[in-house]
Amino acid sequence: MSGDILLRQLEYLVALHREQHFGRAAAACHVSQPALSAAVRKLEQQLGVQIVRRGQRYGGLTEEGGQVLGWAHRILAERDALLLDLDRLQHGLTATVRVGAIPTAVPILPAITVALTDRHPRARMRIEVLSSAEIVRGLAEFELDAGLTYLPEEPDAHTRVLPLYRERYLLLTPDSGPLADREALIWADLAGVPMCALSTTMQNRRILDAALAEAGVRADVVVEADTVESLYAHLRARRWSSVVAHPWAQSYGVPDGLRLIPIRPTPHTPAVGLVTGHQRPSTLAAAALHDAVLAADLGARLDRAG
User: Fold this and answer.
1) Exposed/middle/buried for 181, CB within 10 Å: 0-12, 13-18, 19+?
2) Which of 92, 102, 171, 292 is deepest in the core (most CB within 10 A)?
3) Closest by CA position to 186, among listed 214, 222, 225
């Protein structure tokens, strides 16, 4: 290999893959496009492989380039972990923990932030609302420290998981509606009820649709939304009902004019939990968040709620 590889070259490669464009990658790195292109070409010369497919425009990475990119992510993550560890020794944990959360788990995020900052008062949280697939990608590419998502039945060897709860379901319905006097419901009772529901692209909605189908009924969905907050905004009009997960009820309460009624039985649902990297490099920020949530016994509290 000719010459030492510079961390800056690896940063440029990561930015190029993320932006999929030389000009945008250069702007993100605050350098000129010729400087970024030259640095990537020098990296190719040093490693003796072609990393980038070139043509009229950026054409993606070669197979060798994909391997180099994976190592670049790991090396840069190790650099960041070193700096964070040194800073922690001097000042305590001051990192910003990057968390990706599926929309249906957003209501429990404040409890997770409290657990972290109670243990590490100078720590900070940056939250992105993402799909499960985007969380997996973000963890793999070290763009996230942790994910709050539905957990697979068999986690892969590269992650560690901390289960927090399995969803239980309740009907949030107008207190003047036809079901308001019931103490409990079965899924078949929801036939013909005008509903607000999450989008069919979301796993929570697919779970509910499956439970209704097993009972031989379909949801009469009047309003579809992609956030829990949107559902609650519509429910306050007291014209529709919605099947809500028990952590939502704990976080948002029961708006005026509505009533919560349990639905039984609860279908088998995947656990919702915290996902962090298991194999190195696993960031100190990820480990700090995992340990704080575990120490707060948040899983037991969420499981008892609702």
Assistant:
1) exposed
2) 171
3) 214
> What tokens were used for 271?
């656990």
Instruction: Give the rounded distance of the alpha carbon of 221 from its chain centre.
Output: 26
Residue 301 pLDDT grade (very low, low, confident, very high; cuts 50, 70, 90): confident
Q: Which two tokens stand for residue 137?
A: 């990608």
Residue 241 · residue 251 · CB < 8 Å: no
Give the predicted TM-score (pTM) of the model: 0.69
User: What is the DSSP pairing of strand 258-262 with strand 169-174?
Assistant: antiparallel
pLDDT confidence of residue 70? 87
**E-strand stretches of the chain:** 52-54, 58-61, 96-101, 124-129, 146-150, 159-165, 169-174, 194-198, 220-225, 242-245, 258-262, 272-277
Instruction: Give the whole-angstrom CA distance, residue 181 versus residue 179.
Output: 6
Report the chain's terminal Cα–Cα distance, integer Å. 61
Q: Are 185 and 178 in contact (CB under 8 A)?
A: no
Tokens of 192: 């013909």
Residues 265, 152: contact at Cβ < 8 Å?
no
Query: Read out DSSP for 230-278?
Result: HHHHHHTTSS-BEEEEHHHHHHH---TTEEEEEBSSPPP-PPEEEEEE-
